[in-house]
Structure formats: structure tokens, C-alpha cells
């Protein structure tokens, strides 16, 4: 892994991106830290065209985008237009909102929609990736849902955006899942896992938790992963400080 493959998820800084000035200031700070790539996630303070100009103007490359779940499946053509605007080729399905995983029929419907959206994106030269949480590690009829999703879709239609925290939260082995998705994973979310003072699982800065990232990164490289995206859903203070801490750890220990 090289440093220019390490990016961050805009969602981490969502509270700082509520004005045009906040967007510019935050990106300047992150560029100074050393980040050069990012992953998009809903920013409403400016138009998409304005955001694209700001991102490129501050020296960043957008490598993928978390698209609205329902819209992505219902109208993948709209996501293609959005990706084109930012010059990126990958869309991520961020969360199975409203899907009843207790229903085999609902799961099969989701799988069919993912296949269709992935086919449409593929014909336009784009890719669709599934971003997991822990809910997909529930079993339906004795089989893990995430396995059903990937087994039920073609490797060309649906890629993986594996999230390290949520794999561990779901009881899976991060390295084993990376290996299982070899050739199918273009982006991985680097997200550390710690047990806090209330004995609850909590997301933390890379290197501050319990995940051993060296074998994870090595497996991801062997699996053909191109981008390593730092995402921290919740931060103890300024999210830019948390992203800086994670970047320093990666720079000193993983590249």
C-alpha cells in the first residue's frame, strides 16, 4: 500500500461540511495532513457541481461515492451521472435501509436489484460495491447474509467495499473476508475496533484499537484492492484530528 492509495470518507467530517467555507477549510486541513483521495458521501451545503470544483481545486481525487441506497437501486442511471460529474468510477451501496433481513423474499429482492444496478453501472464503465455493516452477518436458513449477497450476484456486477470494523463487530475474521473477496474488492474501509469504558464496541482511530491491520492490508493488496479509505463514524473531538492520527499511524506502520 502506498500513501496515495489512502483516502478518507467525507462522512467522517460531516459536521464540518455544512457551509461552503467549512468544506474548503476542512479539505485544506486534510490535504495538509497528506490525504490526496476521498470518498464522497452526501454533502448538501453546495451543489454537486460546486463540490466537484472544490474537491479538484484543493488537490483531491474522488475515487468512489456512497450513493443514496434506494435511488441507486431504482435509478442507477442517476448515479452514473453523479459519478461522471466527479470523475470517479465506483458507486457504493451504503446501507440496506428498510430491507427486512428476516424475510428470505426481501433478501432475494435486494440481491436481484443489486445485480441489475451493477449491470447498468458496468455497461457505463462504472462499478457497484456493497458496503457492509454487522447486520449482514446474521444467518438466514443457516447461511450468512453477506455470503448470500455475493453468491447471488455476479463478480462483474457487484464488488465489495469491506468495512473492517463491521466485519469484526459481526463476528467475522477481517483477513478471511478479504481473502474470500479476492478480485472483487476495489475499496476497503479501514476502521478500528475498541471496547470502551462502558464495555461497548466503539469505532476509533487506526492503531488505537484491537484490529491488527498489517495482515489486513497485506491480504487486501494480494486481493487486488486499489483504495484504502479511512472512515470514523464517531470521533471524540475534531474529526480532522482523528483522521490525522489515523494517517500518521498508517504512514508509520502500514506503508
Describe the structure.
With 255 residues, the protein is of the alpha/beta class. It has a single domain, classed as TIM Barrel, CATH 3.20.20.150. Helix content is 42%, strand content 20%. The protein is built from 10 helices and 12 strands. The strands form 3 sheets. An 8-stranded parallel β-barrel has the order 1-2-3-4-5-8-9-12. A two-stranded antiparallel ribbon has the order 6-7. The longest helix is centred in the middle third of the chain and has 20 residues. The mean pLDDT is 97.
Q: Tell me about the biggest sheet?
A: 8 strands, parallel, barrel
Structural class designation: alpha/beta
Low-confidence stretches: none
The domain count comes to 1
| CATH structural class | Alpha Beta
Average pLDDT, all residues:
97
CATH topology: TIM Barrel
- Name of the CATH architecture: Alpha-Beta Barrel
CATH superfamily: Divalent-metal-dependent TIM barrel enzymes
Number of strand segments: 12
SSE string: EHEHEHHEHEEEHEHHEEEHEH
Strand order of the largest sheet: 1-2-3-4-5-8-9-12
Tell me, what's the shape?
A: globular
Helical content stands at 40-55%
**Computed CA radius of gyration, to the nearest angstrom:** 17 Å
Amino acid at each position: 500500500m502506498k500513501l496515495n492509495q489512502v483516502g478518507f470518507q467525507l462522512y467522517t467530517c460531516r459536521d464540518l461540511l455544512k457551509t461552503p467555507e467549512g468544506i474548503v477549510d476542512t479539505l485544506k486541513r486534510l490535504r495538509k495532513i497528506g490525504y490526496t483521495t476521498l470518498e464522497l458521501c452526501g454533502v448538501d451545503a453546495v451543489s454537486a457541481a460546486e463540490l466537484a470544483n472544490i474537491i479538484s481545486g484543493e488537490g483531491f481525487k474522488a475515487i468512489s461515492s456512497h450513493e443514496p441506497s434506494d435511488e441507486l437501486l431504482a435509478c442507477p442511471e442517476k448515479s452514473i451521472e453523479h459519478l461522471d460529474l466527479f470523475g470517479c468510477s465506483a458507486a457504493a451501496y451504503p446501507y440496506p435501509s428498510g430491507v427486512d433481513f428476516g424475510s428470505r423474499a426481501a433478501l432475494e429482492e435486494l440481491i436481484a436489484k443489486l445485480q441489475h444496478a451493477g449491470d447498468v453501472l458496468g455497461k457505463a464503465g462504472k462499478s457497484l460495491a456493497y458496503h457492509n455493516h454487522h447486520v449482514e452477518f446474521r444467518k438466514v436458513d443457516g447461511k450468512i447474509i453477506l455470503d448470500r449477497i455475493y453468491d447471488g450476484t455476479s463478480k462483474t456486477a457487484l464488488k465489495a467495499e469491506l468495512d473492517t470494523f463491521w466485519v469484526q463487530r459481526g463476528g467475522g475474521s477481517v483477513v478471511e473476508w478479504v481473502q474470500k473477496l479476492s478480485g472483487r474488492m476495489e475499496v476497503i474501509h479501514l476502521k478500528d475496533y475498541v471496547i470502551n469504558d462502558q464495555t461497548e464496541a466503539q469505532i476509533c482511530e487506526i492503531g488505537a484499537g484491537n484490529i491488527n491491520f498489517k495482515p489486513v492490508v497485506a491480504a487486501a493488496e494480494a486481493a487486488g484492492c486499489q483504495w484504502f479509505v479511512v472512515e470514523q463514524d464517531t470521533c471524540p473531538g475534531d474529526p480532522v484530528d482523528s483522521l490525522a492520527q489515523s494517517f500518521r499511524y498508517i504512514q508509520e506502520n502500514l506503508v
